[in-house]
Structure formats: structure tokens, C-alpha cells
Design a protein that fits this description.
Distance between the termini: 27 Å
Shape: globular
CATH superfamily of the largest domain: Glutamyl-tRNA reductase, N-terminal domain
Structural class: alpha/beta
CATH class of the largest domain: Alpha Beta
Number of strands: 10
């Protein structure tokens, strides 16, 4: 059986600091450059603990070497390159938290899902099938217990905050009420803290305007900006910065800053031996099924999907509506893509495909 045309290039907290890895975040924003070297599709994953580039290509070793060289130039450390079945296996292990600081965490699976969603209109067959395999192994992990809720970076930050303060009495200010911020607020409540005060830069239900922030003894910052911009009002005892790159500016000497690097430097929390074994079995079976699907000829559904995806890419590249703002143009394109997908599904049903 032919080896799958897939490569992963990865650097993690084991290899380089969060600030060093942040220098590589802008790489390959122009997908056309990768297309010219033979990459058919790319998924980019940046979390507090890793930066990864997953590419489908007929020349995985060649594309992997080029991507790795660019990453090393930015980060200063050579990343790990995996190809073929080894790369597919690693992608599934990442998605279920086997390669995470906290084994079996569920947060990373959602981040992988979001990374695939960003590339939804540019995914080729390999990435489409991998995305399906990821969801299947995540679902199995939740059912069999080797993917665990409430064990991700939010829970880790709350645990670190308790250790830093010595109690759970302080009212905590949480900056950013996105996915991570919401999980932090839930983790604080779950672990017996007073109700957190959530702040957001833009209007959001459940959050106060950040411009009206009040002093708090402790802060957890869950935003994603290009540089350090937040300085808490008053004198805080502890500020935990979950941003990559760091989001917190200059702090007084009396305020303890805890960044991502310090957060992930503590002791790991591992799965049981039985849970790890179950996870390995699920990954092995997931890889075997995925390789078989990749090797099989495309059915009518797959061919129609490929035509659809090319048409959607053409919409993004060629359709221009004069007089619209960037936000309005994005909304128009999103609506057009949704309409094309709905039409494609109707065609597939009419053809009698499942």
C-alpha cells in the first residue's frame, strides 16, 4: 500500500518557549507559496503548548524539509518532522491529548477542530478524511474515558493560581471571555472561588467593559493580541498570562507574573495505564482505517466534494463586490460558501449517494 502523502512539522513546549514559538505564527499565511512547492492543503495549529503545520502533499519529505527550515529560521530550534503513517498517527495523538502537557485534555481537541474549520474551504481529500478521523477518535475518547473534560489549560491556570495565593478567597478578574476565558470562569466556579469578574474588550454578554476594570488581587488573561497590551489597574498579587505571545505589559515588582512557559513547567497529570492503552488502540485502529480510505478510489461523493471545494476557492479568489467593507465581504463569501455546500448536498442526494 502506498504511503499516505502527509507530513507534520511540530515544535512544542519541550523544544522552545512560547515566546520563541510565537515568532513562527505568521508563517505560511500566503498559501499560494506552499502550493508552489507542492503542498495541496495545510492546517496550522497554534496553542499555548505547541505550534504545528500539517500538510497534504505528494512529496511529504520535500515539503516537510522546506516548512521545517522556515520554522527553524523563525524559532531558532529545529522542529520535528513526521511523514506518512507516522504523521497521521501523531495528528490523532495530538487531537486526543496524548501529546499534551495534561494527558487526555479535551481542550486540544477543540483547538484541532477549529484549526480544520479555518481551512474548511481549502481542504483537499487527505485533510477532509483526516478531519473525519479526528472527530471519530475524539468521540471514542470521550466514550471510553481517555479524553477528559475539565483538564485543559484553563483548569491548569486555576490550579496554579491557588498554589500562588495559598487560598481560593480572592475575586479573580478574567480578561477575555472567548472559549478559553469561558472555561477559566467555569473552572474557578467549579473549584470554589468567589464569582469571577469577566471583562472583554468588545461588548459581550456576561462580561464587563474592560475600560471600566476594577482592581483585583488576581487576574487571568485569556486574550490573543500581537503583543503585551494589558496592565491591571491597582496592585495585583498575581497575574496569569495565557496569551501566546504574552498579553500582559510591564508589571510592578510586587506582582507575580505567571506565563505559559511557567504554567507548563510543573508536574504533568497523566492518564492511567489502562486509559493510555485504550487510547493507543483507538489511534492504531483510526490510522489503519484512515490509510485504507486514503488508498481507496474516490466514490462519487468524494469527486463531487472536490469539484465543490475548487468552486468555493474560485469564489474567494475571483468574486469581488464593490463598495463593501472587509466584514461585509467576509459575510457575503461565507453565505456563498454555505449556499454552495447546501446545493452540493442536494445534488448528492439526487444522485442516490448516502
Amino acid at each position: 500500500m502506498t504511503a499516505p502523502g502527509f507530513v507534520t512539522v511540530t515544535t512544542t513546549w519541550r523544544d522552545a518557549s512560547a515566546s520563541a514559538r510565537a515568532r513562527a505564527h505568521g508563517l505560511f499565511g500566503d498559501r499560494s507559496a506552499l502550493n508552489r512547492i507542492g503542498a495541496d492543503g495545510l492546517v496550522v495549529l497554534h496553542t499555548c503548548a505547541r505550534s504545528a503545520w500539517w500538510a497534504s502533499t505528494a512529496e511529504p519529505a520535500w515539503v516537510g524539509a522546506i516548512v521545517a527550515a522556515q520554522v527553524e529560521r523563525s524559532v531558532g530550534v529545529g522542529p520535528t518532522v513526521r511523514t506518512g503513517e507516522e504523521a497521521l498517527r501523531h495528528a490523532l495523538e495530538v487531537a486526543i491529548g496524548l501529546d499534551s502537557f495534561v494527558q487526555g485534555e479535551s481542550d486540544i481537541g477543540r483547538q484541532v477542530h477549529e484549526a480544520f474549520a479555518v481551512e474548511d474551504d481549502r481542504r483537499d481529500r487527505t485533510l477532509n478524511l483526516l478531519a473525519q478521523a479526528v472527530e471519530q477518535v475524539r468521540h471514542r475518547g470521550r466514550a471510553e474515558g481517555f479524553v477528559r473534560a475539565n483538564t485543559g489549560v484553563g483548569a491548569l491556570a486555576v490550579e496554579q493560581l491557588r498554589e500562588a495565593l495559598g487560598s481560593t478567597d480572592a475575586v479573580v478578574g478574567v480578561v477575555g471571555l472567548g472559549e478559553i476565558g469561558s472555561r477559566v470562569v467555569a473552572a474557578l466556579k467549579r473549584n470554589g472561588w468567589p464569582e469571577a469578574v469577566a471583562y472583554n474588550r468588545s461588548a459581550r454578554e456576561g462580561a464587563r467593559p474592560l475600560a471600566h476594570a476594577e482592581p483585583h488581587d488576581a487576574w487571568i488573561v485569556c486574550t490573543a493580541g500581537p503583543s503585551g497590551w494589558f496592565v491591571p489597574p491597582g496592585l495585583a498579587r498575581v497575574v496569569i498570562d495565557l496569551g501566546v505571545p504574552p498579553q500582559v505589559g510591564e508589571l510592578p515588582a510586587l506582582t507575580r507574573r505567571i506565563g505559559v512557559d511557567e504554567l507548563v513547567a510543573g508536574p504533568t497529570r497523566s492518564l492511567s495505564t489502562e486509559a493510555v492503552l485504550a487510547a493507543r488502540v483507538a489511534v492504531d485502529e483510526g490510522v489503519a482505517a484512515l490509510v485504507a480510505r486514503l488508498a481507496a478510489p474516490q466514490n462519487r461523493l468524494g469527486r463531487v466534494r472536490d469539484v465543490r471545494d475548487k468552486f468555493i476557492a474560485d469564489i474567494d479568489q475571483h468574486v469581488v463586490v464593490e463598495g463593501l467593507s472587509v466584514e461585509q465581504m467576509g459575510a457575503v463569501r461565507k453565505a456563498a460558501r454555505a449556499a454552495v455546500r447546501a446545493y452540493t448536498h442536494q445534488v448528492i442526494r439526487a444522485l442516490g449517494e448516502p
